[in-house]
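step: validate -> pass
step: tokenize input -> pass
step: predict -> running
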Amino acid sequence: MEKPTNRPQNPNFSSGPCAKRPGWSVEALANALVGRSHRSRAGRERLKEVITRTRSILGMPESYVCGIVPASDTGAVEMAMWSLLGARGVEMAAWESFGSNWVTDAQKQLKLSDCRITKADYGVLPDLSQIDCDRDLVLTWNGTTSGVKVPNGDWIPDQRQGLVIADATSAVFAMEIPWSKLDVVTWSWQKVMGGEAAHGMLVLSPRAVERLESYTPAWPLPKIFRLTKGGQLEQSIFAGDTINTPSMLCVEDALDGLKWAAGLGGLPALIARSQANLQAIATWVDTTPWVDFLAVDPATRSNTSICLKIVDAWFNALPPDQQAQGIKKMVAILEGEQVAYDIAHYRDAPPGIRIWGGATVETADIEALLPWLDWAFAEIKGLLKT
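step: predict -> pass
step: emit ->
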């Protein structure tokens, strides 16, 4: 097969940290409050601006609170689980790596006695209709390592008794979030908006706040998990204060991304850009015999973490370790050509390709990448056959 000549302008297709916005340069951080306290008036104003702009773009309900928390999306999910769970029975839904991590936390760390697990293999959702939402529920809204998303929240009753905790780190800013169906929503700056890492966002519904103020977990809570003071919500966390010290460089970068998003036209424009990236890959998959989506049902295909499996008969006849080696070689070839970085499957997922399709990725770069995937697969096929 002839080697392509047209390369993506930006070869960064990693699923986290994700590509910076188009046109980004370090000059975007020129006005960062470096050397200043995050608790100074100016520092708090910047942090509050991140919250205010986030709320505006996402159309968050006024009654929900939104705060900046430590340790990325992982920290935000852990805060929610350790602070809120244990008051009633818990449902855990998992169909990929990160959802399975939360199952481990619930069972082995929190040691919840009334914990039901609903699991599915990579590529499919579990039967969500079997979940009892009068119990608390923890799930990933978009399975970053499987490319399988929850298509909607219609299955979640409005009049539920339990809380719904959604790890939505690769969904927020790229998919519609049904706020009224969710009580806790978490994400991190380095995902869909391409910000710098280490900081998380935590959104709580009034029902989640009521739980925090009426329930005390049986286990001790580290300082960085504490969301209440004197039995009341620590409001300052959701108004520009933070539990730990944030990087003001990262804060400036988050603001830069939010301003870029507002200039595009806000959430509808972000979603449209991401959907265009998914469509470009779908069009290619439809005419490419060696590859398919890992997500079985098109309605559940992620438009951010786009996971592809190899369906070529020769490849699938190889032992699993040779399949993994084949993907490793393919990714190395593409990296060597400087056309794609970090697009291998997640370590726990089936061997394949994972391409980030969030709004910071240009569709033209996706389209330029696809012929290279054909070429690289032909290259490894020749190498492994010999």
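step: describe -> The chain has a mean pLDDT of 97.
step: cleanup -> pass
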